[in-house]
Amino acid sequence: xxxxxxxxxxxxxxxxxxxxxxxxxxxxxxxxxxxxxxxxxxxxxxxxxxxxxxxxxxxxxxxxxxxxxxxxxxxxxxxxxxxxxxxxxxxxxxxxxxxxxxxxxxxxxxxxxxxxxxxxxxxxxxxxxxxxxxxxxxxxxxxxxxxxxxxxxxxxxxxxxxxxxxxxxxxxxxxxxxxxxxxxxxxxxxxxxxxxxxxxxxxxxxxxxxxxxxxxxxxxxxxxxx
Length: 226
Known about the structure:
Elements: H1 8-23, E1 26-34, H2 36-49, H3 55-69, E2 76-77, E3 84-85, E4 92-94, E5 96-98, E6 101-103, E7 106-107, H4 115-130, E8 144-148, E9 167-171, E10 175-181, E11 184-198, H5 204-219
Parallel strand pairs: 4-8, 8-9
Antiparallel strand pairs: 1-11, 2-3, 4-7, 5-6, 9-11, 10-11
Helix pairs in contact: 3-4, 3-5
């Protein structure tokens, strides 16, 4: 029998995830979004604006814009659990499979940023994640986190919400789906978007409003790309 010692990162992540599951009851929801316009128009949009905006950037920005409308999705309980704390700034973290292990850098002050600024920040954090050059401050301030496994062929999944965040959005891969229209069928690019959230102070109706707003942004990303 071989024993493989846990790395420091594995121990740290494991302790955080265990504490999150023990102390924060999770609620779960899932929607399916039509991302045909986003997928088909992203490259043309990048050429037109002379920018590099990834699909992930649209998701990060969509999360932030939805939190603006549903502020409890960025809230937390105070230590005595007698009041909700809604932070001044919206921070969206995104999971990166870096050489040193899974890391979650955070794009801060998202309520003030455009889609282009979001793309610049995420590219910089991604580069530093892969070079193991993230600073302690890069991990702080996440009110919501994005994670995805579509590149591994996963259609949908629920992730454990990080301890300090209100919830986590999980995305799978794009699926070509036949959708009925008036005169037959058309193929659309569909994706499941899953949400795990803190059920202590967010009910399913509120979380559904947030998740449906996010899906609406992604269904028609015109507003995000202005």
